[in-house]
Every structure is written in structure tokens, then in C-alpha cells.
Amino acid sequence: MSEGPKVIFEETLVCPVCKSKTFKAIDYLYDTPHAGKLILSNWYCENCGYRFRDVKPYEAREPKVIEMRIENENDLRTIIYRSAFAKITIPELGIEIEPAGMSQGYISTIEGVLEIILDKVGDFCDKECENRIRLAMEGKIKFTLVLEDELGLSFIKSEKATVKPLILTNSD
Ligand SMILES: [Zn+2]
């Protein structure tokens, strides 16, 4: 018996291009006879028309750690989706952002993520730390971006990104 595609994820996000909250993110699960289960992402901005499409093999949405080394301007333009459940760490810049602070996920480039962080750093970042983030945005500092996502929804669209299972540590 064949089944049609099933919607497995649906959220309205802020568009990475026009910044309006009209970016409809929808993921479909396809069960194909030859390629197995695939996830098709069709994300589209109703305001400016920006589109993000992607096809990838279906993996269980389990806790995972995604890591990528950012070494040049090309890496900075990599598309990244940070779900609302992901923690961001950039050890070289002393950045650690817990998921609880964000009510919603966002899609952006790595450079855009640094910009978002720079907007919100106020409390934990002094002038020197701000300068380092700016240098990183210009590709003058190499750094590692780590996403720890308990729901496994986040992704970094690059072959350089590595994905490992996240071992959840429980304090009790
Ligand atoms: Zn847009």
C-alpha cells in the first residue's frame, strides 16, 4: 500500500532575507520504493519569495550534536537551522546560548547567526568579546560552531558539518 507524503514539521519562521515573519517551513516525509524514507524540505517566504529546498535521508529525530569548523568566508555563508531546542556553543568566542532563551527556531547563514548573537550579547559580552565576534563575521577568526539539539531538528547544510548522538547528562 502506498502512502502520500506526510507533513512532519511545520513552523512559520523569520525570513533570513527580508526578515519578515512569513517564512513557511514545511518538511514532508516520503516513503519511496527505491531510496527508502526521505525528508523533503520545502521552505518558502510568502513575502519575498526566498526558497530553501532540501532532500535528505530520514534519520530518527534523536538528540544530536552538530559541529562545524568555520575557516573562511564560504563557510560563513553556510545555511543553518537552529531549532528552538538547540543550544549554541562557540568555544573560541566564549559563546554559550541555552535554548530556553529563544521561543522559536530560526534559519540563517552562519554569519547571520553571529549577527543575531551580537544583537543579544549585552549581558555576557564585553567590548573585546564583541570585537572578536565581528572579526569572526569577517572571516578573520576561525571557530567551531556546536549545536546541541535534544530533539534533533537542527541542521547545518554543509559536508563539513559532523553529526554525533547527543549524550544527555542527567544531574539526578
Ligand atoms: Zn522573505
TrEMBL record:
Zinc finger ZPR1-type domain span: 13-158
Keywords noted in UniProt: Metal-binding, Zinc, Zinc-finger
InterPro entries: Znf_ZPR1 (IPR004457), ZPR1 (IPR040141), ZPR1-like_arc (IPR004470), ZPR1_A/B_dom (IPR042451), ZPR1_jr_dom (IPR056180)
GO molecular function, one term: zinc ion binding
Assigned protein family: Belongs to the ZPR1 family.
Protein's name in the database: ZPR1-related zinc finger protein
The organism of origin for this protein: Saccharolobus islandicus (strain REY15A)
